[in-house]
Amino acid sequence: MSTAEFPNIARTDDVFLVDALLTDEEREWQQKARTFAQTKIAPTAEADFDAKYFRSELIPEIAKQGFLGMHIKGYGCAGASPVAYGLVCLELEAVDSGWRTLVSVQGSLAMAAISKYGSEEQKQEWLPQMAAGDKIGCFGLTEAHGGSDPANMLTTATRDGDGWIINGAKRWIGLATLADLCIVWAMTDEGVRGFIVPTSAPGFTATAIDGKLAFRASIQCDIELKDVRVSDDALLPGAKGLSGPFGCLNEARFGIVFGVMGAARACLDAAIVRSTTREVFGKPIASFQLTQAKLADMMLEYEKGLLLALHIGRLKEKGELTYAQISIGKLNNVREAIKIAGTARSILGGDGITNEFPVMRHMANLEAVRTYEGTDEVHALVVGRDMTGLNAFV
């Protein structure tokens, strides 16, 4: 894919020719996402991060591009391939992780929960509106005390006549103050079940978390559920036990595998452009051996991460993707993206800590991505369990 249209994207796409491994349809989705991200999001990305402003007015435009729930077939969704979805995530995260998080929370979590586990009536009611951006969803799983241990869930749903009463609290819930519905996971007498909860329901309160040093141009919230009553048709009939939320989390983790390579590319591009234009000791920084070694190492890990993402995408297309493979992708690509960002910062010198460049913003955002949808430690244990057959979680 040519980068001439966007001069801030350097030579990273032209070295290993990963583009040659894509279909025409996948290239079209990537180009559409790149154009949108670079023209609609990038011009204000630094200012929005500084101002802690989520530009929600862009959601209808993102919906018109077909990005919301794009991997779902039918119900007004695009039905695109896993790799096409991954490439859209990459291009959005190349500008800011918060925008990949938007399509992830809406499509891979909230919409995926309804698509995978909802009744036909629930799908017909919600998915077309969510694909169009007319309704925004969030995903209420994580709790403050539990983090990576959802089996220790304290939120409860108790049968009450022809409905349910939900009590509890959730933390780090993306988009909750904007959302029209929340997929709430709660412990019942039957185990963990999922519910479609209107955020307008009495007793449902969402409060944006302030003081963040990452994801400042994105919204994450605390949720309180106090005697929230929903009817029986709010229950997702196909989700029983933790396999329900985990099935959605794996969709989101898949997007991360691609997305963080976008942030890595942005940092590498900044390092290439800066090192070839800034001169010290009478010549460009890029002409020094140590700088070229850094650039080569960054390119190596970027290309390896991109090829890993593509391989995982092809496995997903064939229905052969395992939990361990997703964990390998998330663990490796987030970790290497953070390293690439750090090395890019060193090449930029003191200016690298300013918002003249996107590198420190990406570094901060990637640290948040490293934690959510499973920490490094959790994914390492998933891989270890697959290798040994022994569960080290408990």
Explain this structure.
- This protein folds into 3 domains: 18-131, Orthogonal Bundle (Butyryl-Coa Dehydrogenase, subunit A, domain 1); 137-241, Butyryl-CoA Dehydrogenase, subunit A, domain 2; 244-388, Butyryl-CoA Dehydrogenase, subunit A, domain 3 (Up-down Bundle), CATH 1.20.140.10.
- A hairpin with a 2-residue loop joins strand 6 (181-188) and strand 7 (191-198).
- It is α+β, with helices and mostly antiparallel strands and 394 residues long.
- Strands 3-6-7-10 form a 4-stranded mixed β-sheet. The protein has a 4-stranded antiparallel β-sheet with strand order 4-5-9-8, with helices on one face. A two-stranded antiparallel sheet has the order 1-2.
- Helix 7 packs parallel to helix 9 (323-348).
- It is globular and about 80 Å long.
- The protein contains 11 helices and 12 strands.
